[in-house]
Amino acid sequence: MEAFDGEVRDLLKGNANFRNVWIGETAAHFGAQLTNFLLPLIAVTHLAVDGTGVGLLSAVQFVPIVVLSLLAGVMVDRHPPRRTLVISCLARGGALALLGVFQAAGGLTFTQLVIAAAVIGTATVFYEVAYQSTLPKIVPVGSITTANGLHQATYSISTLAGPSAAGFLIGRLGLSSALAVTAALFVGAAISGAFLRGVEAPPQPRESALRTIRSGLRYTWSLRPIRDLCVQAGLSNLHEQAFLTVFLVFAVRDLHMSGATVGVIVGIGSAGALAGSLLASRLAARSTVGFMLTLGVVLAAAGLLLVPVVAQIGIYVVVLASVATVVNGFGVALFNVFAVSLRQAIPQESQLGAVTASYRLIALGTLPLGALLGGVLCDLISPRGAIWAVGLSYLVVSFWLMFSPLRTARTLEEAQELGRPAGPREPAPEPSRTSAS
């Protein structure tokens, strides 16, 4: 842990660009978690919207990931990242601020909420692609894992604290003030992103956006390591979402747990995710990147499979299920830290946006399918049978990377070599990829 702390300290003290981007990312993460809790809460408590309406509100925030990810990759590759980071944060903050104004002026409508959700979801896609494409341009290759570990730790903390903070703000300050505070976080993120210096868009060929998207997809799929990561991430997210759906039904109907208890069990998994993100860099120093990557996804699957096992035992189910979600969270964080680091280190600089967007499209595009699959399995074979089926299936697909050349990569630099095509490779300007400023 001391080694990780030292590397983080060096990054934050010696790299102004990374420090400013990370501070902005932290504010944006907390703002996003508050938003994810606030919007459905407003729909349920202030507008008395039914379940279908709440589902529509959530879908509106998710649809832009599928529809706009590839376009976001094109835009990020063609424009300086600072512009995208600032505009996307201001758009989210502005949408929330308007909701606060409408609420103070006479009350919100569901239409206003849906429009705000669409704006926020769209801006989030552009922000995430821009941030993940910018990181390898401002951090040395050898420090990317540490930077992503810090990113994952921030995400875990905000996921754990966001809903509680949102409830506190509404209870103490009221809805309008809670929206204003959340908007202020995004404005703060925009200000921090504005301090990014010396990172410009790499030269791009003059071609249409559609042609650029096609070439980006071809390039992404041509890199065997990136292709394997895409497939593994898509399969993992499919099973994670299916399991979450099944577990909710199984815990309530078969184990007779309350909704609050289920929420606590799932939330405790964030503690495992935080531990995994903090330990990733230290573990990489003692082992290899390829091994830690594959270990992460296998642990994530094994953790979820423990849930039906402890339910079958029938004693201390809540405690043991919580331990299982901690194991799952640890594995997910470990996989994410190394997967994102590899995805940032392997591609050419001119293709970072395209690869990031393509990866996110495949990795996150399976989430709605997983939710639907989990519900269908509950109805077809019962919740108990479904939770076993999803857990066992997840464990099987978690070994996908065992057949990838990534398993032999000891460092990110070796992984870069695995990603080199057979033919000539476009030279990348090394100083902008590796220099710290």
From TrEMBL:
Compartments in which it is found: Cell membrane
Region described as Disordered: 415-437
Position of the signal peptide: none
Membrane-spanning ranges: 54-73, 85-104, 110-130, 173-196, 260-281, 288-307, 313-340, 352-373, 385-403
InterPro entries: MFS_trans_sf, TM_effector
Pfam families: MFS_3
Protein keywords: Cell membrane, Membrane, Transmembrane, Transmembrane helix, Transport
Main location: membrane
Keyword Transmembrane: yes
Membrane topology of this protein: Multi-pass membrane protein
The keyword Zinc belongs to this UniProt entry's keyword annotation: no
Stored CDD domains: MFS_MefA_like
Xref: PANTHER family: INTEGRAL MEMBRANE EFFLUX PROTEIN-RELATED (PTHR23513), MAJOR FACILITATOR SUPERFAMILY ASSOCIATED DOMAIN-CONTAINING PROTEIN (PTHR23513:SF6)
Protein name: MFS transporter
